[in-house]
Amino acid sequence: MAADSLDQIVSLCKRRGFIFPGSEIYGGLQGTFDYGPLGVELKNNLKRLWWKHNVYERDDMEGIETALLTNKYVLRYSGHEAGFVDPLIDNRTTKKRFRFDHLLRDQSLDILDAIAREFGTEPTSDHEGLSMTLLKDPAKAEVALKAAKCVDPTDGKPGDWTQPRTFNMMFKTQVGPVADDESFAYLRPETAQGMFVNFKNVLDSTNRKLPFGIAQQGKSFRNEITPRNFLFRVRELEQMEIEYFVMPGEDERIHEEWIEDHMNWWVEEVGLDREKLNLHEHAKEKLSHYSKRTVDIMYNFPSLGFDELEGIANRTDWDLGSHSRDQANLPLSPNTAEKAMKNEHSTEKLTYFDQPNNKHIVPFVVEPAAGVDRGVLAALCEAYCEEELEGGDKRTVLKLKPALSPIKVAVLPLAKNKPDIVAKAKEIKKMLQADSGMRVVYDDSAAIGKLYRRQDEVGTPFCVTVDFDTLGLGKDGDTSLTDTVTVRDRDTMQQERIRIDELEAYVRKRLR
Ligand code: GAP
């Protein structure tokens, strides 16, 4: 049986050392999580798979790692200072704060209709759209919410609501010892901007021709109003993003190619069930300021339903255009030319010399942007399985793709009080560990059945058991199994006898 609630995943993660609440012994820090011994392995494996697919296996990609602390002008000209906002509202009675569109989402249809009617707009079940409409006249919205008896989901009673307002989600931090209005920087809210502002550096140092891309993985920070649903919405998140630079006019076709490629990646490499994935096309009127078209890859998370795993946007020439000096003399698309802020601080023109046509152009950008934490969460949800075994026993097993499994092999001695068996098991652990770069563990802390269950629960694909036969001490002097071990498969629980000198090759072949 698959997980039917996120609580099962949260509980496994805490119990087995995948993920812990951040700053837990001081009461926690909302919206932060710490990755434990197994969590860090899983997360690194996911990131490695992504990097391999998107950087190493292509001939048109470069990797980069840019600073988290970001000059305010980067985020001014990107549009984040003005536009990276969420709608916010407070209930004076319960003192609870809500994201306004989420509050509307949690109302009954009758209340939602009443709010629209009182405000004087068309009734709609589109909570995001209604929230945007109401924000145009916050004073009138306050009156409408009161008249419609808009309910506080925490106590089920009509709230005493403030006016809705917007709230910028970027974290500011002081830089240097003097605190004044000018000496601040932002913690980046997306990894993307580091790639745009380095466009020229990468282009000049690699001599790339269009189309080519830059990939980056790393932390981003968003002061979410209501972080929730475990790793799904956090304030310190990790992203895996690509900015893929193309000739204007080729953007729409290449956008489609990335959507298909990444949909397949989540299925084939991460192991997500295609049936639990779908594509969500953003409505034109809800597109971000930079986007011509955005398609989200959505995963059906337990408890949450379908929600965003990755967004793939056609960002046009917005970012390179916005971060360039002398914009008036650049061949920008009409939207960017009209709406981007006049740049008075940049020292560069982020252009590309189109040799065949002998002119400078501003490339368009296709951006596949995925969340590492949401990827980890989806992989865990997909893999989680409770099974009833013959004889009435139960087991919880994480059927992770072997490439994602935190531990690849557990080497277990059949008897921990037999020094020769223990020594052999430790020797095999060391041998497997030596050049493979994979995590192999030795464990003798319980009886073999219990050890198998423990490894099942954390998704270890192979358990190797060393027994008397391995040492040539089989029953009735049988030495036919000397220098062999049993290898137990996590999913089928079948055991095979394998020669020790063939063990590494056996495991490697099955880890792909
Ligand atoms: N550069 C574009 C960009 O950042 P986004 O849709 O805001 O786009 C990309 O973010 C991905 O980052 C999302 O699809 C999601 O997986 C992840 N993400 C965004 N906000 C998040 C949060 N608060 N907690 C966890 N993951 C988040």
Question: What's this entry about, in short?
Answer:
With 512 residues, the chain is an alpha+beta fold.
Structure, explained:
With 512 residues, the protein is an alpha+beta fold. 34% of the residues lie in helices and 26% in strands. The protein contains 17 helices and 26 strands. The chain has a seven-stranded mixed β-sheet with strand order 3-12-13-19-16-15-14. A five-stranded mixed β-sheet has the order 23-22-24-25-26, with helices on both faces. α2 (37-56) crosses α14 (372-383), α6 crosses α8 (138-147) and α15 crosses α17 (500-511). The mean pLDDT is 96. Bound molecules: glycyl-adenosine-5'-phosphate. The site of glycyl-adenosine-5'-phosphate has 19 residues, from β13, β16, β19 and α14. Glycyl-adenosine-5'-phosphate binds at residues 190, 192, 222, 224, 233-234, 237, 239, 241, 308-311, 367, 369-371, 373-374.
| Percent of residues in helices | 25-40%
Q: Strand tally, please?
A: 26
N-to-C span:
25 Å
Stretches where pLDDT is under 50 for at least 5 consecutive residues are none
Strand-helix topology:
Elements: H1 6-16, E1 19-21, E2 33-35, H2 37-56, E3 61-63, E4 69-70, H3 72-77, H4 80-83, E5 85-90, E6 97-99, H5 100-105, H6 109-119, H7 127-135, H8 138-147, E7 151-152, E8 157-158, E9 165-168, E10 171-174, E11 184-187, H9 192-197, H10 199-206, E12 212-221, E13 236-246, H11 251-268, E14 277-281, E15 293-301, E16 305-316, H12 318-322, H13 334-339, E17 352-354, E18 359-361, E19 364-371, H14 372-383, E20 384-388, E21 394-398, E22 409-413, H15 419-436, E23 440-442, H16 448-458, E24 462-466, E25 484-489, E26 495-499, H17 500-511
Parallel strand pairs: 3-12, 22-23, 22-24
Antiparallel strand pairs: 1-2, 4-11, 5-6, 5-9, 7-8, 10-11, 12-13, 13-19, 14-15, 15-16, 16-19, 17-18, 20-21, 24-25, 25-26
Helix pairs in contact: 2-14, 6-8, 15-17
